Amino acid sequence: MKHLQLAFLVPLMLFAAFPVAAQQNEPLVEQRLKIDWAWMTRYQAENAALSRDRAAPRIVFVGDSITQMWRDAKSGFFTDGRIDRGIGGQTTPQMLVRFRQDVIDLRPDVVQIMAGTNDIASNTGPMTDEQTEANLQTMVELAYAHHIRVILASIPPASHFAWRPGLEVTHRIARINAWIRAYAARSGAIYADYWSVLNDGQGGFRPEWTIDGVHPSPAGFDVMVPVAMDAIARARALHNPRPTADTRQ
Questions:
Q1: Would you state the torsion angle of the CA atoms of residues 203, 184, 221, 213, taken in this order, to the nearest 10 degrees?
Q2: Does 175 have pLDDT greater than 50?
Q3: Distance CA 140, CA 126 (A)
Q4: What span, in angstroms and rounded, lies between the C-alpha atoms of 126 and 244?
Q5: Hey, which residues does 84 pair with through a beta bridge?
Q6: 155: Cβ–Cβ under 8 A, 6 or more apart, which residues?
Q7: Number of CB atoms found within 10 A of residue 35's CB
Q8: CA neighbours within 13 Å on the CB side: how many for 48?
Q9: Measured between alpha carbons, how far is 91 from 110 in angstroms, rounded to an integer?
């Protein structure tokens, strides 16, 4: 089990704990920020390969390290057209920049958007709740413009971020999740409530399902899979991937 945890902590230290990596390897991080801020090159080769093969309807999972590590932990889940486009450490503005390349251009039937953890952590600078919400809203609108059904995922629970000591995160996660749930309802998206199945009753991550209080362990991803499958089934049942109400509220 210790070896398995180390396998998860390596990508976590490299990607999710962006400020820590910056201190340890400043030239690499500076290069990334200056020449590929949104990491557009991360999936370009995989995307090119997918453009030549479309054997099954596609569901793209776009997100940060939680999404990226899902494929690392449970590669067997990402079959039958399920495609992982998570990048560790990313914030909603970075995902928005790469949304066309890593989502729209893959022509999926459904996209799951899971984001917000690193906005709260200020990985690319301080952000308000409203800025995070605006970026999520823009991604949803882009998806609808291209007839893609949308799953909006809750931010998973956390009581702290190890790379941001002292930062209060629990209440802010709850506040943004309340907005995501309400926005999904009025925009015609499906809400995937991972928070409810993973939290410890006080807003933190259940210890048996996480490696560090933020990222799921393999057992945690096992708990998430039924939530994802239910959300995918409900999204596919939607006849018209369009807003059902004014989404600008």
A1: -30
A2: yes
A3: 23
A4: 32
A5: 61
A6: 114, 115, 116, 117, 120, 173, 176, 177, 180, 195
A7: 9
A8: 5
A9: 21
Q: Which of 203, 193, 204, 200 is nearest to 226 (CA)?
A: 193
pLDDT, residue 70, reads 98
Encoding tokens for residue 60? 């793209």
The residue length of the chain stands at 249
What pLDDT, in 10s, does the model give residues 80-129? 899 999 999 999 999 999 999 999 999 999 999 999 999 999 999 999 99
The structure tokens listed for 71 are: 């494929």
Give the strands of the sheet with 59-63, arranged side by side. 82-86, 59-63, 110-114, 149-153, 190-192
For residue 194, give the nearest of 116, 90, 81 by alpha carbon.
Answer: 116
Confirm if 198 and 220 have CB atoms less than 8 A apart.
yes
How would you class 209 by CB atoms within 10 Å of its CB: exposed for 0-12, middle for 13-18, buried for 19 or more?
A: buried
Residue 226 has pLDDT above 80, yes or no: yes
